[in-house]
Amino acid sequence: MTSNVRVAVIGIGNMGSTHARTLLSGSIPGAELTAVCDMRASMEAWSREHLPVSVAFWNDPEELMQSGTVDAVLLATPHKDHARQAISAFHHGLHVLVEKPAGVSTREVQEMNDAAAAAPESVFAIMYNQRTNPVYRKLRDLIASGELGEIRRLNWIITNWYRAQSYYDSGGWRATWSGEGGGVLINQCPHQLDLLQWTTGMMPSRIRAFCQFGRYRNIEVEDDVTAYAEYENGASAVFITTTGEYPGTNRFEVTGDRGKIVIEHDRLTFWRLREPEPVFNERYQGAFGHPECWQCDIPIEETETGHPGIIRNWIEAIREGTPLIAPGAEGIRGLTLSNAMLLSTWEDDWVTLPIDEQRFEDHLARRREESSFAGDAAGQESMPADMSNTYK
Amino acid sequence: MTSNVRVAVIGIGNMGSTHARTLLSGSIPGAELTAVCDMRASMEAWSREHLPVSVAFWNDPEELMQSGTVDAVLLATPHKDHARQAISAFHHGLHVLVEKPAGVSTREVQEMNDAAAAAPESVFAIMYNQRTNPVYRKLRDLIASGELGEIRRLNWIITNWYRAQSYYDSGGWRATWSGEGGGVLINQCPHQLDLLQWTTGMMPSRIRAFCQFGRYRNIEVEDDVTAYAEYENGASAVFITTTGEYPGTNRFEVTGDRGKIVIEHDRLTFWRLREPEPVFNERYQGAFGHPECWQCDIPIEETETGHPGIIRNWIEAIREGTPLIAPGAEGIRGLTLSNAMLLSTWEDDWVTLPIDEQRFEDHLARRREESSFAGDAAGQESMPADMSNTYK
Region Disordered: which residues (chains A, B) (predicted)? Predict the structure, then answer.
């Protein structure tokens, strides 16, 4: 492909407008921002003022996608619109880069994935920019290469998402079942829920979770979660998150039968066993002995490329067939964890994966009926902005 | 009281013989070791060889306690004998220092506590020597004095209890329902389960736990535990332990509404909020702001006095009425947590505290019936030795 990919950004809130500027900056070779789209009329004036005249403004995503003026769309709309808009884009033969989370429920995201599978010419990616974070890339490398051995335990304490009540009060849609379809899991944690499965290559077989709704703030949705998960190989995991504490913690500990890795404060430490634990256990005949263990500070030398890295990779995939860092179809995995944690809490019971989508949607529908937010969310800011502005 | 307290150590395995030597060393003013007792005939020869002739050897605890030759007994027998022996001691008007854990089930420990309450002249203590560890004393101080504010979350990852199969194979009673009545919770974790409640002054209202039995080793009992607990004030806790991993972790994180404390690697760090989080939340009107936070390295200047410290304190309490560091009646608290975690797993459901003792005992009785260990445990080593030899 020699000509530039004509890209439209749909949804130009905080996040979408940042992506638009990235595309205009020249840092994405082979891509050209030719259009933006936002259903909020006020954004047309913003667009006229801040974007070159070469960038067309559209008010209706469907009309834009039908127009034949773009090859690819970057969806930075509220996540509950992602699936519907992506499906439409695939029908029009467009490439899609969707912001995270992929959607609200796995059912709609599965429909999006099905539509993507039926449009194999369309390159479908998701904005999991934390997959470019070298510390998590290194963890994935150490696991995939077998350095850590078979995984036994995952403990992620990710409680550094502090939000005051004023944050929630800043938009009527925020932290409502109708507006967002969830709380800390859907708004703040999509990266960690993806990294939990992406770095390890494992999805749990069942989950038992304990969400607390409005524990710290006057909101409808969960602002505190403790989840326990079990995996087919016998491994177990704990995932703890909240928006109500300060300063919070971000500590991811992974134990394998060849040692332990801890990621905290942007450092990765590997306690490496000289011989695998099962080998030691087999030969050892004493009482309180243990395998020889080396504390290794692992160099982190790559640079995080962030959102521009994901956009660049998506464009390269379109133009040159480069493998995607974050294939769009993988967005369902982190969302499955999120949906399962809510469902387990609502039913006060185990949830086996894959989850029963109908049960999840039934529960969610009841909560949406009673939700304080009755709008259609067309006027809301693009929600993924929250993470981008604050994620470290 | 001017005369020395005449002390007998009952059960002279690893732990009991250590206590006997401590009493003989002169480091416990006002106490005199006048007798030891062990049901294993072989220990009489050991006693003759290693102890002064002034120390009488008894084979039967009951006869010793009836003899009128001692004022106080230190029970270092297998923990399933603790309650029965302590009750007998109280009936004979003796003071009691019992090793941890207090017993196997809360029912028998409650009976022990009732007998102690009916013998108010007897000074009853428990060997929670980790209560003399200055890092946990400091944590307790910071919580009790209000520095940390109201507690919101406790996360204790205590997975550094590595035991190879050869450890379990070294005694037929080890890690059996009949021999020990539990695994990592009853043998390795009594200190942490006590410190969890002692440092915070809080017991949970309900627990949902996930024990795995023989996950890493060929044993009957639990060698892997993840427990979630909720407290009346809304706080939650996670407790994670295992004997199957190396190098493991010992990290205790406590979050309050005035900051966060982490104890790891024998250091205590306090992230102190300049104003309480609820006060900040009330006044703050922005989006992503947070309370001002100071990272404080807290000096740990006291010295850990360990087992001798607990014995000394018990003797001082007997002689001078000094308040006990570890009142014996408090042993039921950590054991309640342990019993609740097993019961929750067995019933695959929540357990509300105080636990239903009958249900716990019924479950345990069924497992004892099928237990591989049929002995009466009279020939076993004193189990608490495991912790003392290896803690930290």
Answer: 367-392
Residue in B closest to A281 by C-alpha = B164
> For chain A, what is the radius of gyration of the CA atoms?
22
- How far is the C-alpha of A84 from the C-alpha of A87, rounded, in Å? 5
Dist CA A238 CA B138 (whole Å)? 28
pLDDT value at residue B298: 96
Report yes or no: A20 and A30 within 8 Å, Cβ to Cβ: no
A149: left (phi over 0), alpha (psi -120 to 50) or beta: left
Nearest to B78 by CA among B192, B193, B174: B174
- Report the number of secondary-structure helices (H) and strands (E) in chain A: 13, 15
Nearest chain A alpha carbon to B233: A215
Q: Do B281 and A165 touch (CB under 8 A)?
A: yes
Mean pLDDT computed over every residue of chain A? 94
Whole-number CA gyration radius for chain B? 22
Q: What is the largest CA-CA distance in chain A?
A: 77
Domains of chain B with bracketed CATH: 5-128+305-326 (3.40.50.720), 131-303+334-369 (3.30.360.10)
The whole-number pLDDT of residue A157 equals 98
Sign of CA dihedral A128, A130, A131, A132: positive
Give the residue from A148, A151, A153, A211 with the most B CB atoms within 10 Å of its CB, the best one to mutate: A153
A255 with B159: Cβ contact below 8 A = yes
Q: Which residue from A153, A245, A277 is facing B246, i.e. has the nearest CB?
A: A277
Q: Report residues of chain B scoring pLDDT below 70.
A: 1, 375-392
| Residue A154: per-residue pLDDT | 98
Question: For tokens 């209202």, what's the residue?
Answer: B205
Contact between chains at A226 and B244 (C-beta distance less than 8 A): no
| CA A318 – CA A374 distance, rounded (Å) | 39
Overall average pLDDT of the A53-64 stretch: 97
Are A93 and A115 in contact by the 8 Å Cβ rule? The answer is no
Structure tokens at A252: 């991811």
Contact state of B166 with A284 under an 8 Å Cβ cutoff: yes
Per-residue pLDDT, A1: 60
CA-based nearest residue to A155, from A232, A229, A101? A229
Tell me the C-alpha distance between A194 and A136, whole Å.
11
The minimum CA-CA distance between B230 and chain A, rounded to whole Å, is 10
The residue of chain A nearest to residue B295, with distances taken between CA atoms, is: A247
CA distance linking residue B128 with residue B126, whole number of Å: 6
Residue A293 dihedral angles phi and psi, to the nearest 5°? -135, 135
